[in-house]
Design brief:
Mean pLDDT: 81
Number of helices: 10
Low-confidence stretches: 4-21, 289-295, 297-312
Number of domains: 1
Strand order of the largest sheet: 5-6-4-3-7
Helix content: 55-70%
Radius of gyration: 25 Å
Structural class: alpha+beta
Shape: globular
Largest sheet: 5 strands, mixed
Distance between the termini: 80 Å
């Protein structure tokens, strides 16, 4: 009799645990659906792709402005306010912004004295170019390549789209953790690690590479609309590949397409961009007068830049 009572109690406890897990899973699935349905549906300019983003344009712009202030306020940041390089960055950025599918950004363009070969554009139109990339750009067309690419990321709302993907992935990880609650810690940890690696390699990284490629394509069009020959993109990315320090990581494990994939895609999209460039030049929109060849080579040393800059 006592054995029967204990068996019934164990069975009831098992049912209760299953019910608890089921309820929690239902809550997590409901939360994931809520996140997805709550996300705003957008159409990416130029490519026409439909996307969902985690934040409104207003919220994105507010976060972008706050992050921009924080970055520029860093004690190690040297903002180059005057000089030909700073003028060129502002001129090129304003020219591209004028033809971008601007949702109402308040544009700012900043040159930062740093050896980093990088640039970025935060939501809301806050753009920074690091002086180290000027060596790769070489001239105004080269600078237009990288600035158009970064501006395209912000216009396409890639940051808010990536945020939603990461939120859904975390919910999926929590749901799996709940399901595996009865396993021993070692097995549970191994399965969760496997899921995390699978999500990273199979979902998040491919999405990131797709966003990079989309920014390349949109950037070509923005260059062309601004009167910059988009053919310059091929040379720029070839120089970026040549300047790489160390071996290129495997594409499947990278946030960016491989150099070969990127250049092949650019060549595939060039006819579309060149047609846009032809229409632009035919309507009388031409690029501003070019600076002398090699104007940006070598890049200005940090010491000389600091003399014409102000540190926050």
């Amino acid at each position: 009799m006592q054995r029967q009572v204990r068996a019934v109690a164990v069975e009831e406890r098992g049912f209760a645990e299953i019910a608890s897990v089921g309820i929690l899973l239902a809550i997590l699935v409901g939360f994931a659906l809520f996140l997805y349905c709550r996300a705003e549906e957008q159409t990416v300019p130029v490519t026409g792709r439909t996307q969902r983003v985690a934040l409104s344009e207003e919220d994105q712009a507010q976060l972008g402005a706050e992050a921009y202030r924080d970055i520029l306020a860093g004690s190690a940041t040297e903002i180059v306010r005057t000089g030909p390089e700073a003028t060129l960055v502002r001129r090129t950025g304003e020219r591209i912004a004028a033809v971008a599918d601007d949702p109402g950004f308040v544009w700012e363009f900043t040159l930062i004295a740093s050896p980093a070969k990088n640039a970025w554009c935060l939501p809301g139109g806050k753009v920074a170019v690091y002086s180290g990339i000027l060596e790769i750009a070489r001239d105004e067309k080269g600078l237009a390549v990288v600035m158009a690419h970064e501006i395209a990321h912000a216009i396409a709302q890639h940051g808010a789209e990536r945020m939603l993907q990461e939120q859904l992935t975390r919910v999926g990880l929590l749901a799996l953790s709940t399901t595996l609650g009865g396993l021993d810690p070692a097995s549970r940890g191994a399965l969760l690690a496997l899921f995390g690696a699978g999500a990273q390699l199979g979902v998040l990284l491919p999405f990131s590479r797709d966003m990079e490629s989309e920014a390349d394509r949109i950037g070509l069009i923005y260059m062309a609309r601004a009167g910059y020959n988009p053919e310059a993109a091929i040379g720029f990315w070839e120089r970026m590949a040549a300047a790489r320090e160390g071996p290129e990581p495997p594409e499947y494990a990278s946030t960016h397409p491989s150099d070969a994939t990127r250049i092949a895609n650019l060549q595939k999209w060039l006819p579309e961009a060149m047609e846009e460039y032809r229409k632009t030049t035919e309507t009388g929109v031409t690029m501003l007068p070019q600076l002398p060849a090699g104007f940006l080579l070598p890049p200005a040393p940090a010491q000389r830049m600091a003399a014409t800059s102000a540190s926050d």
